[in-house]
User: Fold YCII-related domain-containing protein from Pseudorhizobium pelagicum.
Amino acid sequence: MPQYLVAIHHPDEYDPAATEDAAMTRDIDRLNDEMVAAGVRIFVGGLQPADRAMSLKAEPDGEVRVTQGPYLKTREHMGGFWVLEAADLDEALAWGRKAAVACRAPVEVRPFH
Assistant:
């Protein structure tokens, strides 16, 4: 069965302590329970803010340069994600819709190769 990434996006200034209330936590927990019951959830994870990232880049001389911060400079970043196993894109999008509502944030659904 195909696998899909369902990614939650947050603005760079996102503060979970100020944004995520008990109702949101409950909705995300319910969604996770529903995904497990449906047998679609492979993995789920929340990510630290993008400024906690370390970026690595191979240089032409063979050295690998490590820098503090995200590789891409954007106004939004991935805040968390699910890896789901779904019958098709339509099913993955249905889970993505539920994720957008539960997380109160934009969601990206992308198939794996």
In short: The chain has three helices and six strands.
